[in-house]
Amino acid sequence: MANKLVAVLLLCIVAAAAMHLTEASPVDDQYATCFNDCDDKCKNEGNGYSFCEMKCDADCLAKQAFVKLKDLHF
Predict the structure, then answer these.
(1) Are 57 and 36 in contact (CB under 8 A)?
(2) Which pLDDT value is given to residue 36?
(3) Predicted pLDDT of residue 25
(4) Distance, CA of 68 to CA of 61 (rounded, Å)
(5) Which segment of the chain is annotated as a signal peptide (predicted)?
(6) Burial of residue 12, with CB atoms counted within 10 A of its CB: 0-12 exposed, 13-18 middle, 19 or more buried
């Protein structure tokens, strides 16, 4: 009985994980490119990991939001 319960639990976990898998969209690729370029540039300027992580994340998210808002048609 316990083996069946464990098997069902594992199947549910696998099914839930499979439902959450998605393909990367071009927007995600643009964010990754923006972030990596910004992060490299920031670190080359002598800034630390945490500073660059927060700065680049905020900058690239803002750029991504601007592109999404610009593409809206009312």
Answers:
(1) no
(2) 94
(3) 58
(4) 10
(5) 1-24
(6) exposed
pLDDT digits (tens, 9 = 90+) for 35-65: 999 999 999 999 999 999 999 999 999 998 8
Tokens matching residue 44:
């080359």
pLDDT band at residue 20 under the 50/70/90 scheme: low
Q: What percent of the chain has pLDDT over 70?
A: 82
CA–CA distance, 13 with 18 (Å, rounded to integer): 9
Is the torsion defined by CA of 14, 15, 16, 17 positive or negative?
positive
Residue pair 58/38 in contact (Cβ under 8 Å)? The answer is no
Tell the residue number behind the tokens 């927007």, with chain if given.
27
Which sign does the torsion angle of CA 2, 4, 7, 13 carry? negative
